[in-house]
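Narrative of activities, Objective 1.

The group set out to show that a structural description can be obtained from nothing but a protein's sequence at a throughput compatible with the screening campaign. Below is one input-output pair from the validation batch, recorded exactly as produced.
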Amino acid sequence: MRRDQLWTIIKFSNLDELQTNRILDAHIYPSKSGWNAFIRIALLTLGAGFFTAGVVFFFAYNWDYLSKFTKLGIMEFLVFAFAAVYFIKSLNPLIRNVSLTVSAILVGGMFSVFGQIYQTQSIAFDLMLNWSLAVTLWVLVARFAPLTALWLILLQITLLLYLEQVAHSYNELLLFFLISIANLSVLVVPHLAFRLRMALYSPIWLSMTALSACLVFLTLGMERGINELSNPWFIPHAILTILVLVSSARQGFNMRMLTPLVMTAICTIIIISFFIIKWNDNEPGLLLLTAFILSSVVILARYLIRLNRKWHGEE
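Output recorded for this entry:
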């Protein structure tokens, strides 16, 4: 039972105050164990982050005083030590997964230290590519959302650096299209796994983050494509944009979530605004654009407020 449904039942029932408080304590308000779990996860995350930052500052401050063997030895020891913690089955799964994530972050530092010591003349693309490939197996084995998010960021940066540093003459619209596909995979793969009856869970925060990034790059690509209608990648990008917008809105209605609906509506308004600017780049066009944005935002806000009230049984 969802929280909005429970609130509706309590509102229109004949429960007394004691019964209502018991239901709220059991299903709405976080319990003591819930707060303990939140604090434990927060402290573990902060500790991992501060430790990783401490390693970076340690090397930055003592770089000139460390030998080559010491520099590489410390980084390799930390990478393997944190990775080894993952295989200790008696530990809490969260501790094991966080340890593996820290190890994945330190892999990038190890490659950076190696490149600085031996002056390999490698470009940033080489570092990000090797980093992404090195942690791919860990992502597949752990199936830990923060680690997956890290790998997805590395993959997109690698793609961006490849087009900028290796393929010097590239189609910018193609870049936005490929990055959008990479973010979209986070949403599509768990859905396909569910259809195939495979256990692959994706938390809602990771799905919403991937959807946000996908819509941002799709919108940027539409802006580029509208200004370059002859671009061969404009039609595929436009088709993908329409499909994602429709799917996002449909998912928002099915799950009764405002976040996908808001993101879909904002991106649609921005894209339509790009078309208005393209074909009416004058004073009447700017007046039309202003009127369109103001009216669409007002209508959207009123509609979403009414929809949210309806979903929560307030109408």
